[in-house]
């Protein structure tokens, strides 16, 4: 068991030239994991990594969400939004708000986008250009938005010492992180607790492909998550914009649902670029609702309406008492007891 | 094990003359509980009652909340609100709204206010006038607002057959039901599943007083409860309105917090009577926050702000698009990649 | 506005021969929707349908989940599970349990799998064989598992009277309904409240394809959902079992994650068929976690651990007191105040 | 508006001699609050204090819960538990566990027990001995267990500069903090954001007693709270242990319910002192369920069963695979399609 505090500085990412540079993730690590007797993790072990604490670096409480230029970084809807842009987000405790997307403020689930271990095939993997960008067998860029305080990751150990690395910290992200650099990217710190479970990689994780490397980590997500009362849910199916029918193709259904939501929300005074960025970083949920009713896969996107706060409502703490007046006459009829002496 | 469906008609309560009549609860029962071999529950057994389903009677989907005249039924704040009044509530699925308290609509936790068993000392208890009004050792008027679908009650069996009775159905209630007839009273049905655990009353329930009767039931509340994002919390301490300091007296602290909340919410266009009724029946939580820091007990009342819906907010489904316009200029700067050919 | 109660009898589906029959959905409807002045809904209107109440038919409180034979109904993992099978589920209030998959019991989000309106192109659509099977522009088989009490659907009106139809009732379903007939199929009733918003179809819904028909409904899901403390999360990426790398292909990533979860859970004494059925009907969440980090899409499947209840834990209501004993010696040291006279 | 980070060191409290010393709270402050133009808060203003971040001091991640000797600090159940004792708790991220109360581990809602402002009557108040111990009009020891990250307090300003002070940090506390020093006391830091709302004290807060000082602060609690699936609920009524009937006396009903819960939980291998401490510091909820059905007030105590983790259950990540085996035979019958060639 070990306890480590990582100060991960991703400020370089913050300065990124979104229109031209190649995107790279600067990770913290590799960290060599030893047990309390000093014996390193070994191939075939299972490594548990608990996220005890994490947050932005002190005096650096801000981040950004961005989409790349069409030729430079793709993004999910790059054909619709080919130009690079970004929005800055300010952090206030667990909340964030942006001068570039007014009228929204939301509580955040901060998490590392990347948590991974070393692999013996690093050279080969690097040649194939997947590098740190995608989610991979050894963890990688899994982008699980709920990997907040109290979460635990069960990782396979492929090399001696495990060579744990982590980073790509997100103050908040939606399922899918659709604008590519769509989470709220920030510099930050992490406190991790590691435990080695000797020789149990095989017992927990089964290869889903031809080699022993083709395993996927397992996660336990933490017990705290912002409560949201109301969700607005959009739907998409795998018919593309030309009207072409695809077959159980979730990626196209998800494209359809995100476009649907962008179109709808842009009716409230936002530009489509603003909504696209917002749907990349606010705590909305992207679900695979239907995957069996051929030919149509159904994807849904659920947006918590509480993130929009422009018009204060109800007996919130009063600031503009005239707006909030109830339209009732304010009187209930009361009936005095005829025998009462009060 | 047995399964029973109770159609409980409380319409008589609905016609109650609030200014003069004595309040009585019309219960359904007593129900004699047998096991599958036909052997009745016996003293010393423990009876579990699971609330499988419940709701308003078909074609009778309405209820009321009321406060009594000072001389007739007390109520928690009867000195401040001495006259009788009531509000009618209409049910729409799990939601309710009232023509007498405009601007609120909320999802409800429907439950029986009373669930109890027979006791051998019924005659004595009746003479002492507690009858069905209060919560008692055998269950009684416990008014636990979360006793919704999926909840389970563990009751002591004092007499052969258990003589289970239930009723006083509430479409919704706040903790405390402060206006006396303050829950949304309705007629309704209940589906219960009973199980006899032979001879285990003593193992589960310990008398808290001088006789074997002084036990209290245990409850498991169900797993569904409306999610609320935001709560407005008021505080009260045990200093009464004359400024007199009491000693760890929660009842006075709770009076203080309810008065506080009534005063605040009445600034939004409601009469104080309306707020008093609302705080009796909406899903708000009354907590004992501090009971050890002498001389002051601290009570809190938490109100979910989502029950107030007068002014639609955020990208809710649009009805009045002009109200909802974001004040932003609606444009994010975008940067075209100089080398791009798109 | 109108209020209607639909008794939808799907018993025929329950008798389905899974090994050979063609699957069809028997829907209730079409229902012609009029406003209070008797004027029917018209093309271009928006129809809101609120799900006020729903549930299994009285005395028919059971359902089933099934997978089809490979040649007969596909299913998401039909290559891995080519033979037909099914499990029966018994309902107890909001809970369900099965004699065929022991050790699980869970609270359910009951919903209609299909809610849809008539279209002018019905003949053409029928010829193209989509019929009622998939989710479609007019609603269709959307299979949104959270479409429970208090939910609201905003549907486009294409034909006079709207011709609303609904059915395919599910006592519970997971995101994706992976085994095809994977939800807990049941007969049931629905109480709906409809409202016509005149001429606003275009204002709410924007076509995502070449015709006006290419719109998707919007949903507001209800505020009650079972609370779950702990979720076990599996991950899958778009590398298939042969090791072939696909490109941002969520459907393959989802296949990977479901296989991962099946493999893991089958280590606890279940057959893989049992787990496959369970993951089709229990309230687990299928998410699109990463869709931008090419080449790998990342899908996750989150399973609430509370659905497994074999071994009672903690101070739950005691049945087997010896199992639950805490290993502590049961004594805290106490220190008497030397000056005390107690 | 101002932003401040308070490092509050309560280590002295940690060394407290529980059997003899007088309890005092060492607070951080007073902090003079100015607006951005340097103008101090003034009497009649309203001060909002948002809790942006808080936690234990680095390298001091532990705390304790304690009960005092009968003659020294009272406590809610001091007559039943007259001797001083304590339990140490270790922190792991948002979780805590104790070597003195084995078998429990729970996620925590960290909060300041005290947040208050200066008053002009300080001398008088001090003479009357309430000092920092109880909750008071200017805030004081409110012990609201949900005052976690993202919460906001609206305080009256009585003196120039407000003289804000805070401290008594709790890693976790139950409603009521019943054992007196019953929360998990710790040293810690706080990041606060203050805002002055000029002259609006009267508009927000109404005196509930004879002087202007008799106001109570209002709170908005934060949106993150651990999710718990299952709650075990105990009930108490205002009949004391001698069998004496009291009248709508919540404090006695709460005593009854806490004793009930202690008795029940002690059947699982804990000493009663351990349970008493546990019910003071774990996230359980104390509610005023009934306050109108005279003569009996009903109080309830709801305990999330997930805090007990001794016996791992269900398909949690497997450690002891033999314990977790499902008792099913593990085979569903499958039916091959007679016409199939697979």
Automatic annotation (TrEMBL), chains A, B, C, D:
Stored InterPro entries: FmdA_AmdA
A Pfam family annotated for this UniProt entry: FmdA_AmdA
UniProt-recorded Gene Ontology molecular function terms: hydrolase activity, acting on carbon-nitrogen (but not peptide) bonds, in linear amides
Protein name, UniProt field: Formamidase
Lineage per the UniProt record: Eukaryota, Viridiplantae, Streptophyta, Embryophyta, Tracheophyta
